[in-house]
Design brief:
Elements lengths: L2 H16 L13 H6 L7 H12 L19 H7 L11 H8 L11 H12 L19 H4 L20 H12 L10 H13 L5 H8 L6 H11 L1 H14 L18 H12 L4 H18 L1
Helix pairs in contact: 1-11, 3-6, 9-11, 12-13
């Protein structure tokens, strides 16, 4: 485990453990053209209705050439052309009738009431859109609004506010908390601090020896040294590798009535744990997951 990586993680964990949790509201950013078209807070197809239809309906009504019953829901004009919505009396549209009755989406999972109400209100307020809809629709479209989601924006270094905090992360957290009229939780004592870090990084409480080492370390950098010790432990990979194993559906057996054992599955489990403990670069880890069958040939 490199010292630079340990230090970076240490500062993040230190700020998180010592500070209150903030729930930030995700806000989409729109292009200037889109904002010029619609600057009010009305319900629009792109922001409110399309995400619902994309999640539940597009796979049968528009994507990959599928248009069951001739219905295409990908654009408002295609809804009108295929008869899904009634331009003259939108509130009497087939789209609303189908979701209100539970006939659609097909299958056991139906739209929740709040999403049905959102579709109803959009229809009643005139089928508003943010953008001028394209003439040609690709089989699979990613709109500008979807691309503008905060998670897809380039990473930038924010300006650090001057608010009396000694660490940049604390300064940023303090600024947001002040904006929300929150305050930091009281500073934790050293035993509580180490317990929080140990549970987070290892999933188990610290040993008495680890507590004594941290409590009696009064030199500068004692907290970072404690975090380095936690990160250097094999328990770190065991704890955090579990999350990846959950994502890929790892199990030691096949389940079902017989629940037969997967005799060699543990090799993959240990590989994941080792990857975390060795701080394997993320790009290498992903590449090995996707192309492991040819990766070994190429590098072997």
């Amino acid at each position: 485990m490199s010292k630079n990586v340990s230090f970076g993680l240490a500062t993040v964990f230190a700020s998180w453990i010592c500070s209150a949790t903030i729930n930030a509201t995700d806000t989409a950013t729109y292009t200037a053209t889109e904002l010029a078209i619609n600057q009010d807070d009305s319900i629009t197809f792109e922001r409110h209705v399309r995400p619902i239809l994309k999640a539940h309906c597009f796979h049968c009504h528009g994507e990959d050439g599928e248009k069951e019953a001739g219905i295409d829901l990908r654009l408002v004009r295609l809804m009108k052309e295929s008869g899904a919505v009634d331009s003259a009396v939108p509130s009497a549209s087939m789209l609303l009738e189908q979701v209100e009755s539970g006939a659609m989406p097909s299958g056991a999972k139906k739209l929740p009431d709040e999403e049905i109400d959102l579709i109803r209100r959009w229809l009643e307020t005139g089928l508003k859109t943010i953008r001028v809809e394209p003439e040609v629709v690709p089989d699979y479209e990613i709109t500008e609004i979807e691309r503008s989601h905060w998670a897809f924006q380039p990473i930038v270094s924010p300006s650090i506010p001057s608010n009396g905090q000694s660490h940049p992360i604390d300064a940023l957290v303090r600024a947001k908390m002040t904006e929300k009229e929150f305050d930091f939780a009281p500073t934790a004592d050293k035993v509580t601090l180490l317990r929080r870090a140990s549970y987070d990084l290892h999933g188990i409480p610290p040993t008495p020896e680890a507590v004594d080492a941290f409590v009696n370390d009064n030199e500068d950098g004692g907290w970072l040294r404690a975090i380095d010790r936690l990160l250097a432990s094999p328990h770190y990979g065991e704890r955090w590798g579990r999350h990846w194993l959950d994502v890929v559906g790892y199990a030691d057996s096949n389940g079902g009535p017989k629940d037969s054992t997967r005799e060699h599955a543990w090799h993959y489990r240990d590989y994941v744990v080792q990857a975390f403990n060795e701080d394997k670069p993320w790009t290498d880890f992903i590449q090995e997951q996707v192309t492991g069958d040819v990766w070994r040939i190429r590098v072997g």
